Amino acid sequence: MAKTGQMNLSSLEKALLGIPFLGGVFFGLFPLLAPALFASVFGFSGNDEYIYRLAGAATFGYAVVLFDAISGQATWNQMKYFVLATFVFNTLSIYACLRAILTPGEAVPVVYAIFVTSILILLITGSLLKKYGLNISGNKDIPGWLPVILILASISAGLFGILPLFPKLFASVFNYLGTDAFIYRQAGAACFGYAVMGIYELRSKNYDEIKLPLLMGAVFNGLGLIASIIEISTGRITPLVLIVTAATLVFTPGLFWAYRQK
Q1: Among 18, 60, 164, 176, which is disulfide-ready with 171 (CB 3.0 to 4.6 Å)?
Q2: 246 has pLDDT over 60
Q3: What is the value of pTM for the model shown?
């Protein structure tokens, strides 16, 4: 295992991270911008468009920072926590796929494609984590108010990562139909990656290590806020919309401000 987080990835390793990057772009922007079309193309019901948009917002956050990794602009020290988040996301994505595959009538063709891709991404990110490690390098130099934001954001991501893994319960609590269980579970998988990343950010408290994860969180929350505004504009105001709107109004500027500090 490498002893320093400043090590750069090889050209092959950067190229392999292009796989989760492309997946993050496609499965982020498509359901975020056109949930009904996304559902129609891939054979889902299209109910609960807000969940589609939130799933897309969470997924696209990964793509934003993975671009820095594949373009060579980030060292391992700067990318290790969002690589870990990608590993966690795809671990739970495999679970979501298996649940769909084992449930009669739930596994549309794209589920199998995501299943295979998630296994591949799991192997790629897992090999990087094993090779380079998650050692902290650097002093704790973030502002004193930032851990408060990180704690709250991590708790929020954890709750909204775990609860959607139980789609029927989640849907009934927040007044949705819960028809597309796979979309709910994928949304939860993406969110839970942020929660694990947040824990490691709090463990590190080193600006160089958490700068890109801060950007990732800011993008996710900013797009989540946009999704909420779209939902409110259509008159579909549920408890979930209100909770997400309130949270993203705090987390988006807080995380972005922290990202811009140095």
Answers
A1: 176
A2: yes
A3: 0.94
